[in-house]
C-alpha cells in the first residue's frame, strides 16, 4: 500500500511573503495619483488606515493562535456566531477574493503595457494576456500550496526593490514646493481624511492572508501571528515612506493626472532607467499579488465545504493538497468577470471592481473582530488570561474601524455589495435543505436495517 507523502508547508518567510505580497499588489502603484486631490493630508489618512490595519492584524494574530484552522475570517466567525454568519463571511470573502483577482489581472495588463504598447490599444489582446496570467497562477497553485508559496517569496522580493528605491532613495531628492497645499480637497480636514482613507484601505486588504491556509503553515500558533503583524507593519512603513517620496518628487498638478506615479517619481529622482525599473517591478508586483490571492481563492470555499457550508465538491484536493475544484471554479469566475468588462477602459474596470472587493472584504473583517469579542467571553481558556481586557479593547477598536471603513466606501458601493451578500442566502437555504434531506435518508436507511430480521446461519 503506497503512502501519500506529507504535504510540504509554508514557513515563516513564506507566510510573511504571503501577507506582504498580497497587500503590496497593484493599488499602491496607482494610489498616489488618486490621493493627489487631497494633498499631503493624505499622509494622515495613511497613518489612520495603517493604525486600523495593525489593530485588525492583532485581532487575526490572537484568533489564529487560539484557533489555527484553515479558513481565516470564515473559521472565526463560524465558531463565534454559528453556521449562518459563517456562511455569510465565507461567501462575501470568496466574492471579494475572485473579484479582486480580476482587478489585479487588469492592473497587471496595464503595467505590462508600459513595455508592450499594443496592450493599451487592443482590448482583445489585453484580455488574452490577463487571462493567461490568471491561469498561469492557477496552474502553479494547483500543483501545491508550497509551490505557490515559493512563487510568492520570489515575486515579493522583486516587487520590493522598486518600492524601496523610491521610499528610501527618493527621500533624498524631494522638493518641498512639490507638496502643494496641505489640504487641497476643499473639504474639512475630517472629510478629507475620511475620503482619502477609503482609498488607502484597498492597499491593506490581505493582512489576514496567513490565517487562511493555517493548516498548511508550519507551527501555525507561532508562525501565523508573527507573519501577520510583521507583514502588516513592514507594508505600512513602505506605503507611508513611498507616498511621502512621490508627493515630494512629482508636482501636485502633474501627479493628479499621472497613470504611473511611482515611475514618474523614479524618473524625477534618478532618470528614465529608473522609470522602466519601477514599471517592471509593478508588473511583477501585480502578478505576485495575483498568485497569492489565487492561492486563497481555493482555500476559503475548501474550508467552508469541509464544514458543509459550501457544495461538497469544493473540498476535493489534488495530490499536493491544493483545493483543485475551488481554484478552477474561482478562476473561471475571474475569467468571466474580465470578459464581461473587457470592452471598458482598464481604469474603469479596476476602479469598479476594487470598490466592491474592498467592501466585501471589510465585512468579514468586522465579523472577525466581533467574533473575538464573543470568544473572549465564551471561550476564555483559549486566550491568554492576563491579556483579556487589552484584547477586548483592541477587538472593539478594530470593529469600530471596520464599521467606519464600510460607511466610508460610499452609498452606491455599500448598496451593491449588500446585494451581493444577500445573493448567497438562497445558496445557504439549498445547503441546509441538502443536509436535512441527507439526514432523513440516513435515518430511514437505519430504520430499514433495524426492521430486517438477522440472517439465519446455514
UniProtKB/TrEMBL annotation:
Annotated compartments: Cell membrane
UniProt entry tagged with the keyword Magnesium: no
Transmembrane segments: 12-31, 43-63, 84-112, 124-145, 157-177, 189-207, 228-250, 270-296, 317-340, 352-376, 388-407, 413-431
One annotated Gene Ontology cellular component of this protein: plasma membrane
Membrane association type: Multi-pass membrane protein
Key words of the record: Cell membrane, Membrane, Transmembrane, Transmembrane helix
Top-rank taxon, per record: Bacteria
Gene3D superfamilies membership: Amino acid/polyamine transporter I (1.20.1740.10)
Alphabetized GO MF terms: transmembrane transporter activity
A Pfam family: AA_permease_2
Keyword Translocase: no
Record protein name field: Amino acid permease
Organism, as annotated: Actinomadura syzygii
